Amino acid sequence: MTLRLFNRLLLAFLPISMALGQSAMPPATSLPAIKEDKKHHTQLQLVGSVKTVRPGMKFTVGVLMKMERGWHTYWKNSGEAGLPTQVKWTMPKGFTSGEIQWPIPHKYNESGEVLTYGYADENMLLVDIVPSADVAIGSAVTLRADVDWLECERICVPGRAFLELKLPVAGGEPLAANARLFEKYRNQIPASFTEHTGFTFSATAVNAILEVRLKAKEGQSFVAVKDALPDLYPEPIDELVFGRTQVDANASGATLRIPLSVYEKTARSFTFRGVVVYQMEGGKHTAVTIEVPLAGDFISSLSVAGEAASSGSVLDQTFSTVKTGNGDQPLYLFVLFAIMGGLLLNVMPCVLPVIALKIFGLVRMGGDQPKHVKRLAWSFSAGILVTFLLLALLVILLQAAGEQIGWGFQFQEPLFVIAMSVIVFAFGLSLFGVYEVGLPFVLAFVGVGSAMEKRTSEDKGYVTSFFEGVFATILATPCTAPFLGTAFGFAFSQPAWVTLLLFASAGVGMGLPYVVLAPRPSWMKFLPKPGAWMVDVKQFMGFLMMATLIWLLYVLGKQLGMEGVIWTSAFLLCVGLSCWIVGKFATLTVSRAKYVLTWVVAVAISVGGYWVFLESILDVRNVIAGVPSVAQESASNEARGIRWRPFSLDELNTLLQENKAVFIDFTADWCLTCKVNEGTVLTNEEVIQKFKSTGIIPIKADWTNRNPDVTRLLSKFGRSGVPLYVIFPPGKPNQPIVLPEVITIGMVIDALGKATGS
Question: With 50 as the cut, is the pLDDT of residue 386 above it?
């Protein structure tokens, strides 16, 4: 790990060398073939089937991949997670490359939850190359391959390598190279189905199911393994979603069924290609490729993935909920909650430093310019209110576009968490005195800065104060004050005007202290006079920002795993260096040229750090978030006394149909209220024993990452955010018991007893 970090740090500081005119590293395409790459768990090499190239004569190149024990890469259809390996070629003029020829993959059931197709230990992807007929005999050619892959064990790590193969050009018959290796993997490439195959097949596509029937020829019989052999691996079609293959096989034949759905409605026809993996008695394990036409009428009948619930699903139920703790509340109460929540945001760790600095500014001028202080406070409050209204409009637009979102939805995107980490970290450095934060730097690029220079200093103060209010609201995003989650959770399920009203109420609440106190400067006499103590308090506030940063990195770790935290921390190191350079060299006394150069170098370091450390892992963030070892393992390990099951809509439907009692904890790692409830109530020994004695099945519906099924189930209870606690009594799936957001030990024990009659 140390070597990997060191190598990436060298790359991150490459822009500095470029800015100083030092020689840059040679381009990746000029690197020799990689023999050992200590940064990854997969070693790659480019090998050829010939020792020399003959003009115009086809030969084969292999991308040889050797994985460490326990690690695997993916097939062209990676399955329910993962990404297929991709190869981009750079070749001499006139050379052409064919499609990747994929060996027969293995089937993996990762963490018992996710089905994938891929390769372990060793694999080689074959590609046919046709050289130009005009290539000069006696010359040498270089083939270069840019390979991207995803390697997974308990975590998933994206990999990239630049490989090359140099071969001389000769006129005679090419001599074979690596013959055994190529023979081994050519024998693993599925052949096309022909009349000589040991079975016949037929297929039908109806009721969203593709059914393929295999029949052994006379004198032949299948080796049948329950639910496993023969099997059918579908090749990918971008517009279609393939479910898991259902296998029903015996010695004489097999029926293979694949459920289908679409990403969006279409009436196009497609040709299904799949790999039938089988073994005949007395034969070896092998595979053939089959093709089945899918008519447009069948495709148009398919449902959109994730939208159709199975028959009898809990999503089809009409609930008659039993609520504990509180009932339906009138709108004015949620408005009051929003105002109180906004008011309390002023003392949350994310916002408090900005508020403190604003108060310091008012203290400095309060005695001399009371009218000016009042207008500055109003400008600050206006910035807060406008930002809340813009957030409300964003929510309304996303919902109008069909997005299923709820309060806290922004934290389901790792890129947002990283962006907030950068803002919090950079602002914390400014509080420590590494550099000074003035009016947001971006304003200079949109012309606001130059326009302000023409205004009076008093006007500048109002604009600056307005954007300080905007900045304070942005910093408030990671914080959820008491009452605010309840109000916003209600707002997300209401008409647009209610959403605007509640967001505006929160803005009014947050800005209320400044509007109320500014006209009465007499309150400032209770504060100490301006002095050195302000610097000490300012630096203390920096530690609050770093505490917020730790929490944000914790959330990111639950989404992207430890790798994500490490590379984000490395990126933050680059951001910190950029801030130090700006604070050290971009001073008011330097020339304009040096000032601009300083900013260019600082921005280049941050952009370079993002490219080196974060770009590759963010490209596969949806894949990593979908791997149970990253996204769900934490959920199953929280509250260790209760044996939580990860949420699955199919499993929930099955449990309810079997008249089981079920407790669902709708939670997220970025939800502070959820964590308080888990730490104080759900880990209590009395609660744990009550779960065990009642036999109720606990399910943790983790909403840390986006999950459409969890979102739809939340909406069934009129909620758009977490936490939410629901108990389904045995035999009463349409009469769930709903607990309030803030729970107590006694409340949970009583509800469990009521649900199970014990």
Answer: yes
Return the pLDDT at 437.
60
| Domain locations in the chain as residue ranges | 31-188, 192-308, 331-555, 632-756
Residue 540 DSSP SS3: helix
Q: Identify which has the larger pLDDT, 305 or 215.
A: 215
> Which residue's structure tokens are 């009138």?
330
- Reading the block at residue 142, the tokens are 């270089």
Token representation of residue 506? 């929160």
Decide: helix, strand or coil at residue 105: coil
Predicted local distance difference test score (pLDDT) of residue 226:
82
Average pLDDT over residues 98-126: 89
**pLDDT at residue 362 tops 90:** no
Given a contact cutoff of 8 angstroms between Cβ atoms, the answer to whether 502 and 334 are in contact is: yes
The CATH number of 632-756, from 3.30.2130.10, 3.40.30.10, 2.40.37.20, 3.30.2000.10, is: 3.40.30.10
Residues 6+ apart with CB under 8 A from 675: 669
pLDDT tens profile 120-163 = 999 999 999 999 999 999 999 999 999 999 998 877 888 999 99
- Please say whether the dihedral angle defined by the alpha carbons of residues 461, 467, 469 and 472, taken in this order, is positive or negative: negative
Strand partners, 737: 322, 727
Quick one: tokens of 272? 């299904």
Helix, strand, or coil here: 13? coil
Distance CA 494, CA 484 (A): 16
Q: Which DSSP string corresponds to 450-475?
A: HHHTTS-HHHHHHHHHHHHHHHHHHH
Query: Of residues 225 and 369, which shows the higher confidence score?
Result: 225
Which residue from 375, 395, 391, 531 is spatially nearest to 461, judged by alpha carbons? 375
Interior/surface letters 644-654, b for 16+ CB within 10 angstroms, e for the rest: bbbbebeebbe
Taking each helix axis from N to C end, the angle separating 533-585 and 592-609, rounded to the nearest 10 degrees, works out to 90
Give Cα 399 to chain centroid, integer Å: 20
The reply to whether 31-188 and 632-756 are identical in fold is no
Q: How far apart are CA 138 and CA 433, in angstroms?
A: 65
694: Cβ–Cβ under 8 A, 6 or more apart, which residues?
661, 752, 753, 755, 756, 758
- Residues 6 or more apart whose CB falls under 8 angstroms from that of 327 comprise none
- What one-character DSSP code corresponds to residue 32? P
Task: Report yes or no: 376 and 465 within 8 Å, Cβ to Cβ.
Answer: yes
Q: What is the DSSP string of 238-268?
A: TTEEE-PPEEEEETTEEEEEEEEEESS----
- pLDDT score recorded for residue 375: 81
DSSP H or E segment with residue 73: strand 72-79
Q: Which residue has the tokens 């293979």?
A: 256
- Is 390's pLDDT higher than 80? yes
Which ranges in 588-671 belong to alpha helices (H)? Answer: 592-609, 615-619, 621-626, 628-631, 633-637, 649-657
CA–CA separation, 352 and 479 (whole Å):
11
DSSP lists the bridge partners of residue 73 as 119
Cα gap 289→105, rounded to integer Å: 13
> How far apart are the C-alpha atoms of 343 and 473, rounded to whole Å?
12
Neighbours of 684 (CB within 10 A): 17
Looking at CATH, the fold of the domain delimited by 192-308 is given as Immunoglobulin-like (2.60.40)
Rg value, the chain, Cα: 31
Question: How many CA atoms lie within 13 Å of 72's alpha carbon, on the beta-carbon side?
Answer: 19
One CATH from 3.40.50.2000, 2.60.40.1250, 3.90.550.10, 3.90.850.10 for 31-188: 2.60.40.1250
- How many helical (H) and strand (E) elements, i.e. helices and strands, does the chain have? 23, 25
Q: What pLDDT shows up at residue 26?
A: 35
Q: How confident is the model at residue 270 (pLDDT cuts 50, 70, 90)?
A: very high
